[in-house]
Design goal:
The chain is 63% helix and 1% strand. It is mainly alpha-helical and 353 residues long. Among the domains are: 79 residues; 99 residues, Alpha Horseshoe (Serine Threonine Protein Phosphatase 5, Tetratricopeptide repeat), CATH 1.25.40. Helix 8 runs antiparallel to helix 9, helix 15 runs parallel beside helix 17 and helix 19 packs antiparallel against helix 20. It is elongated and about 120 Å long. It starts with 8 loop residues before the first helix and ends in a 10-residue tail after the last helix. InterPro entries: Ankyrin_rpt, Ankyrin_rpt-contain_sf.
Length: 353
């Protein structure tokens, strides 16, 4: 064994490492050969061997536990970890390929060191207690940019479809809203519109309902174009609760335009169509005849639509002219729809206005 001492230090360390990996208990007994052996065996076992090797020497670790823990708290000691090796190779490869200067290799760490990135990281790991603490202590002048990793807290919570994260952010909102500066931050820094649109598209009726209830306190103006996009997405979700919530955002009497109602008829959902009836200036029966199927038409009639009532046709050459629902059915050319309307008492008026 003493012949090993004649080898170079690097080779000597490698041989001791392999001895420890093969039989740590037997190698530990070889410390009596000399002090050099003893020091290298102990250093390799405590600092450079993976956990599965160290576990084979409980009698050693028991007496060296404090030293072992200190070493492992300050360095990654499992040198055989394949994932660690892969990550290191990948990082080296990227640095070579991108020819990143040494001074610029820390740019990511610097750019992602803002307060909001700590919040994003905590949310990504679902560390609710940490999220709560960070949000509660976040300065009001915190800049929430279009960050490189993650998104603003409200959008992240909604996109994750996670009730816990959503609760933390909404609790934070309820505290911010108490001051004018906090209200401005909620309105301008948290991408409320994006979060609401995502909530509608993911079909989370609870998120949509709470955001709608919060909107008046936020004093947030929703443009009609944005409202129509949200309502159209709510209709596509086929969730009547979401449709009802979105309708509450419009203060106008005309909450549903002909285009929106036509899309509702195309879904084939009588529940959705019934929810939208009497909410706008569109003629529901005409839209149902043009774009819906017989159950949709029947639902509109059952809701009280006049089967022989006059409907304005804005697409006609002369605005203001009217026609009957049956005439619209003839234009559609669907025999089954025509027969259904006739069976419900539809007639063609003797004279057009």
């Amino acid at each position: 064994m003493t012949e090993l001492l004649e080898l170079t230090p690097e080779i000597f360390k490698m041989i001791v490492h392999e001895f420890n990996a093969e039989s740590p208990s037997s190698t530990w007994k070889l410390r009596s050969v000399c002090r050099t052996f003893a020091a290298e065996i102990e250093d390799d076992l405590l600092s450079h061997q993976p956990e599965n090797v160290v576990e084979k020497t409980p009698e050693v670790i028991k007496n060296k536990m404090a030293e072992y823990l200190i070493i492992h708290l300050h360095k990654i000691s499992d040198v055989n970890d394949p994932l660690l090796k892969m990550l290191r190779r990948m990082a080296d490869y990227l640095i070579r390929e991108l020819a990143i200067p040494e001074k610029d290799r820390k740019v990511t760490e610097t750019n992602l060191g803002a307060y909001i990135h700590f919040v994003v990281a905590a949310m990504a790991f679902l560390a609710f207690d940490l999220v709560r603490t960070l949000l509660a202590t976040m300065p009001l002048n915190t800049w929430i940019p279009g960050i490189y990793i993650g998104r603003c807290p409200l959008v992240m919570a909604v996109a994750a479809n996670n009730n816990g994260l959503f609760n933390e952010v909404m609790d934070h909102f309820n505290q911010l809203i108490k001051t004018s500066r906090g209200r401005d931050m909620c309105r301008n820094g948290y991408d409320f519109d994006d979060a609401f649109y995502i909530a509608v598209n993911t079909g989370n009726s609870r998120f949509v309902e709470e955001l709608v209830e919060f909107c008046p306190r936020l004093r947030h103006y929703v443009p009609k174009e944005t409202y129509n996009e949200w309502l159209d997405s709510a209709i596509a979700s086929l969730n009547t609760d979401i449709v009802k919530s979105v309708l509450l955002l419009c203060s106008s009497r005309d909450k549903v335009n002909p285009y929106i109602l036509a899309n509702a008829c195309r879904t084939g959902s009588t529940d959705i169509v019934n929810t939208l009836l009497n909410e706008g200036n569109a003629h529901p029966l005409c839209c149902a005849i043009q774009y819906g199927d017989i159950p949709i038409i029947g639902a509109v009639l059952d809701a009280g639509a006049d089967i022989n009532g006059k409907a304005y046709r804005p697409e006609l050459e002369y605005p203001g002219l009217t026609c009957s629902p049956l005439e619209i059915a003839f234009e559609r050319g669907d025999k089954a729809v025509i027969q259904f309307l006739l069976s419900r008492g539809a007639t063609i008026p003797p004279r057009a206005d």
